[in-house]
Amino acid sequence: MQWTKVLGLGLGAAAFLGLGIILGHFAIPKEASSPAPQDLDLQILETVMGQLNASRIRENLRELSREPHVATSPRDEDLVQLLLQRWRDPESGLDSAEASNYEVLLSFPSQEQPNLVHVVGPTGDIIYSCRQTEENLTGEQGGPDVVQPYAAYAPPGSPQAVNAAKHRVAAVLVYTDPADINDGLSSPSETFPNSWYLPPSGVERGSYYEYFGDPLTPYLPAIPSSFRLDLANVSGFPPIPTQPIGFQDARDLLCNLDGTLAPTTWQGALGCSYRLGPGFLPNGDFPADSQVNVSVHNRLELRNSSNVLGIIRGAVEPDRYVLYGNHRDSWVHGAVDPSSGTAVLLELSRVLGTLLKKGTWRPRRSIVFASWGAEEFGLIGSTEFTEEFFNKLQERTVAYINVDISVFANATLRVQGTPPVQSVVFSATKEIRSPGPGNLSIYDNWIRYFNRSSPVYGLVPSLGSLGAGSDYAPFIHFLGISSMDLAYTYDRSKTSARIYPTYHTAFDTFDYVDKFLDPGFGSHQAVAQTAGSVILRLSDSFFLPLNVSDYSETLLSFLQAAQQDLGALLEQHSISLGPLVAAVEKFDAEAAALGERISTLQNGSPDPLQVRMLNDQLMLLERTFLNPRAFPEERYYSHVLWAPRTGSVATFPGLSNACSRARDTAPGSEAWAEVQRQISIVVMALEGAAATLRPVADL
After folding, report:
1. Per the domain annotation, does 61 fall within a domain?
2. Where is the signal peptide (predicted)?
3. Which residues constitute the domain of residue 661?
4. What is residue 364's predicted lDDT score, i.e. its pLDDT?
């Protein structure tokens, strides 16, 4: 790939530069003063903040969401060319821009045989049909490029689903309940295009693949030389036909079901009591012995999907990368998901590219902008990239910044990330004015909506943890790279919606954003400014602004949860938390000592090599929490602090999960041995982390 060649040239230049520095060190008299090292330029930062333009972001979004662009479609490839054109522009482009392809396995509905859901009467006649497409409310929901609602990777089949439930589940119908997405509202007058709520015909598309990455090449990039699994050996696909429908059709089915009442937590807002079946009500809209026939005709296809990378080469440390990414593909128009993020990406790269081309600025470290392909099918583009460049990225990446959906709504910033990135985000947001009335900073506005009490800092904004919902997943879980995800979101005291209501539907359009989510695009601009400030601080600061001591709070909270909620149970099985207590204390002490060494160096005139070594300690800390054998039942998850937690105790995930499985087993069982193994895994990770933070000369 060309980006490696460009950075390779930079590394060669850095090697000659390093030789020159060494020779010069001995050639220059000791009393001669050295030039100040390149550091964050506050004037450049202010210039970038002032040039990020809301109107330009709005026009970017209009163009990006003009047509549907599902992964590998002609319009998706058109956007690849648009990105390349922007990043190669002679006046505002980057140092280089290249596209790379991966041949990956995707899933699409058949154009010749659409997926169907019918109610079939006792004589076999069709008495009811669910909609095959969403209602064309704005003229944008029709057309050949609007992909039919479907569940990607669900297998084909035509089972009859209601009476079969007596014995086993034959098929699954999925819908979005108004209680979950619309605050209970469901009538056409209350929903889009009259409000931001999902209209009755809206259907949420999505991938039903259990893992991420190309299904045929786990842990290998989907390039011609890689081994590919036989389809019969691929795991992670749904076992039975699955089809999403709108809540209008779901109402007609659910409100006619017979049987016992569903649990209270299963009830919704369709205007009836939900029942479990089997069969239909004797006095309902359908004959009691009717069947639901689900016909799914999805098919698997090998397609070429493109990633696009744009690079600004670092002036001093070109072999250290700050990555900023967003996926490009959508299910339909995708104005919010993902084009709100791509619109910000294009504006941010334009402003930085303009400064670069004018010769005004070049970052200390390299900046890599990425537009990932086929994210909606399972984070495929980003995962293939991390697989192909695993070693290089692990050795050289400072941090990964993800901006997927940049604006869910316009109330406040929302940040998810690993603890070391907290400080750089706080520093950035304190200096940027929040959109809307008043004169609050983004930080001060954020703390009104999401906050926590820190024993170190007092009341601060709270960061969410990173799951696997976007392209940060392979970077944090697989590579162990400090990561964050930035977005503006809604006031959760005013809505219970789990996400913006038109998510993954044909109603996620430019006008939806322009009218309901962010009129004026001030929140898009705020995200661009936040991301831009974070990028500049990470790429230009002499000392990396990553605070590893902030991990101590997380580790202490995990430890306290284990002691309070699992301590007595573990004692019954003669399992001690003592080694874990000692490991947390050791990490805390080494993190504090490293902080003191940083402060001492910052107050003096440090040798750049000293700072480089210290920065590498900060950069590499996250890698020490990886153990690829910690969770053999999981794929790609190897971070012992952030792997999926299925246990109820909010502690180290491996420990929580193992205790949950062992609770009802006999003493001395394999399940309790696994509990002990998980404690050892965490202890060794923390010991390794503490060792990484000690002075480099201390072997």
Report:
1. yes
2. none
3. 548-693
4. 98
The two most distant CA atoms of the chain are separated, in Å, by 100
Please compute, for residue 127, the number of CA atoms within 13 A of its CA located in the half-sphere on the CB side.
Answer: 17
Q: Categorize the per-residue pLDDT at 19 as very low, low, confident or very high, splitting at 50, 70 and 90.
A: very low
Burial of 380 (0-12, 13-18, 19+ CB in 10 A): buried
What confidence tens digit (pLDDT) does each residue in 197-251 have?
999 999 999 999 999 999 999 999 999 999 999 999 999 999 999 999 999 999 9
Q: Is 522 part of a structural domain of the chain?
A: yes
* Residue 33 confidence (pLDDT) above 80: no
What domain count does the chain have? 2
Instruction: Tell me, letter by letter, the H, E, C secondary structure of 178-216.
Output: HHHHCCCCCCHHHCCCCCCCCCCCCCCCEECCCCCCCCC
Please count the other Cβ atoms lying within 10 Å of the Cβ belonging to residue 605.
9
Domain with 477 in it: what CATH number?
3.40.630.10
Q: What is the distance between the alpha carbons of residues 643 and 652, in angstroms, rounded to a whole number?
A: 9
Residues 574 and 597 in one domain: yes
Is the full-model pTM beyond 0.90? yes
Please tell me the distance from the alpha carbon of residue 307 to that of residue 17, in angstroms, as a whole number: 32
**Structure tokens that stand for 235 in this block:** 């795991």
Same domain, 513 and 612: no
Provide the total of helices (H) and of strands (E) in the chain, helices listed first: 19, 16
Question: pLDDT digit string (tens) for 354-405?
Answer: 999 999 999 999 999 999 999 999 999 999 999 999 999 999 999 999 999 9
Q: List all residues 6 or more positions away from 269 whose beta carbon is below 8 Å from its beta carbon.
A: 177, 178, 179, 182, 184, 185, 186
> Domain boundary at 509, 540, 571, which?
540
**Contact indicator for 151, 174 with CB cutoff of 8 Å:** yes
**Which of 482, 515, 540 is the last residue in one of the domains?**
540
At residue 666, does pLDDT exceed 90?
yes
Residue 644 CB neighbours (<10 A): 12
Confidence band of 14 (pLDDT split at 50, 70, 90) = very low
- CB atoms closer than 10 angstroms to residue 16: 9
CA dist., res. 61 & res. 64, Å (int): 5
Residues 605, 649: one domain?
Answer: yes
Catalytic residues: 375
Residue type, 35: P
